[in-house]
Amino acid sequence: MIAVAAGTNRIDPYLIPALDGVAYGLLVFVAASGLVFCFGVANILNLAHGLLYAIGGYTAAAVLDGGWASLALALAVGVLAAAAAGVLLAGLLTPVATGNHLSQALLTFGVALAGGSLLVAGFGPDNPQVQVPAALEGSVMVAGHRYAAYRLVFIVVAAVLAAGLYLVVRRTRAGMLVRAAVDDPEMVACLGVSPARIRAGVLAAAGALAGAAGVLGAPIIGPGTGTADTVLLLSLVVVVLGGLGSMAGTLLAALAIGEIQTLGVALLPSAAPFLLFAAMAAVLAVRARGLAGRWRTA
Amino acid sequence: MRGEVIRRVRGGIAALVLVGLVVAPWVVDDYTTSILARTLALALVGVSVALLTGVAGMPTLGQTAPYAAGAYACAVVGSRISDVGVVQLVVAAAAGALLAALTVPLVVHARGVIVLMITLAIGELVVVVLGRWRSVTGGTDGLAGIPAVRPFWGLPALASDQARYLYALVVVATLIGAVLVLLRTRAGLVLRAGRDDETRLRASGHRVALHLSGAHIAAGAIAGAAGSLLVVAQQYISPADFGFDTSALLLLGVVIGGTASVGGALVGAALVIAVRDWLFGVLPGHAPLVLGALFVATVYLLPTGVSRARVRLRPPGAPALRPDQPATHDQATVAELHR
């Protein structure tokens, strides 16, 4: 793609990677927002979050057959399956829900390990191929360059999803509870909302988001043995970079990661392995205290 | 009186284990000996995890980062510059300490679960870098054919599995002895006091961030040295040796052993690694499933919460430990500091 793009002027060759970066960033945003909720609202470090994405990805690989109906079906099945897995996880977490992060980390890691193994047992060790709807197979022209139609549509869909998420969190009662629970969990408990129900709801929502990201993002970060780890890592970096409770921060961090992963590789191929690390270090070094201060440190 | 008995029994067990470890290579076959040597290296990383998690109160999922830095530094030095073990150890420890020092600004102001997240991200990013920085690390293929180490100038190269194992045992025993001595000094007391009551320690004029930085760098050096032992044991390394699962396993081992005790950390880490290696042998393909179930079971079986596993040792029904109660032997108080 870069070879096709080269030659017209100095900005042109980087247009396609930059666009790829937007797609990648939005995908990471949708996946990571679940982890942010989980940690911010239920105060749970969910190391099985990548597994929820992988469930969506494998669903996409199993269900998609090139038609639009199969895409709708894959989306429904993937979202439901990942949300159900989230509820299951909430149930498993009940005995260690109050406070002890070390136990939560070990428990969710155990679930990730076992669940990943079950996925590989069910779908085989090879990375499956994902078939997008035939109408999105081709490429379209963007400013004189060919660009994969699916990615363009993905950018639009993910942007709509992100906007919807923003509206839900800002404007609905559920969203208000979510924000209130981040600020003052005791007060929300006083309102008569059971913490166990909040936890189950949040993990289900996190699962649904990760499942949707897994289905739609399958052509970008496809299902495979390393998927869960990759998505968990990217989500963690987004949480670390974006801070908590701020949707805008999360989105900004996700887009930055997308651009680093695509534009960064095109611009500075030799430094590419270090860019993500350097970005995280730079942000944290500049505002480490502020970041830590905004987080509940219990 | 009871404490004295417990201490003697514990000392006796430690001595027995040490004797067992020394004679082990003549009892078991070469393959098991090389696994034992690798387990020793990982147990040493476990000690550095215990130092951070249990003693300093910074739970870490990223000690594979300085471990990897030490291992790769040692591998590069070993194949290009020197096959002298002391040199490799010093270089590896320095590499681990350097990486830990670079990441100090990231972890030292955070607490609790934030440290878990940040260290996890650091560990994973280091694995990504190892996989892509092909010119130095050999990428995902790893580095092979690292020459056998000679412990000191003028000594012969260690050609057998037994010799390499004994070298690792001597190094691990020495370093752990050093850690135990260090923990008995004032620095160890300050670290534990900070873990138990940071506000009071800060109020009494101690610079908590400085002490935590020191602990982080020291733990990095220990993990780095352990990395050089891995190179000695395997003569081959790849990014797969430093994955996220290794970090989580080490943390689980340390938690099982009791986070605040160095001996417990050693036993726990060795146990967990042994179970993993044994499972991979008897259940090809299904080991992660069983291992994951084991994680979940462990968390449930330590009901008071794994980070306080040692509290379980008190008789049932005894009141929970509170800051205003007399400290047990592994609880430091700020008051103790001012005696």
TrEMBL record, chain A:
Q: Pfam families annotated for this entry? A: BPD_transp_2
Kindly give the InterPro entries that the UniProt entry links to this protein: ABC_transp_permease (IPR001851), BCAA_transport_permease (IPR052157)
Entry keyword Ion transport? no
Instruction: Kindly list the places in or outside the cell where this protein is found, as annotated in its UniProt entry.
Output: Cell membrane
Record's bilayer topology term: Multi-pass membrane protein
Q: Give the residue spans that cross the bilayer.
A: 21-48, 68-93, 105-124, 148-169, 201-221, 233-258, 265-286
Entry keyword set? Amino-acid transport, Cell membrane, Membrane, Transmembrane, Transmembrane helix, Transport
Q: Which family does it belong to?
A: Belongs to the binding-protein-dependent transport system permease family. LivHM subfamily.
Protein name, UniProt field: Branched-subunit amino acid ABC-type transport system permease component
Automatic annotation (TrEMBL), chain B:
| Transmembrane helix found in the keyword field | yes
Q: Which segments cross the bilayer?
A: 12-28, 40-58, 87-108, 113-133, 165-187, 208-237, 249-275, 287-306
From the Swiss-Prot or TrEMBL record, state where the protein is found. Cell membrane
Membrane topology term = Multi-pass membrane protein
Q: State whether keyword rRNA processing applies.
A: no
* Source species taxonomy: Bacteria, Bacillati, Actinomycetota, Actinomycetes, Micromonosporales
Entry keyword set? Cell membrane, Membrane, Transmembrane, Transmembrane helix
Pfam families for this protein:
BPD_transp_2 (PF02653)
Which interval of the chain is the signal sequence? none
**What name has this protein been given in UniProt?**
Branched-chain amino acid transport system permease protein
Provide the species name: Micromonospora ureilytica
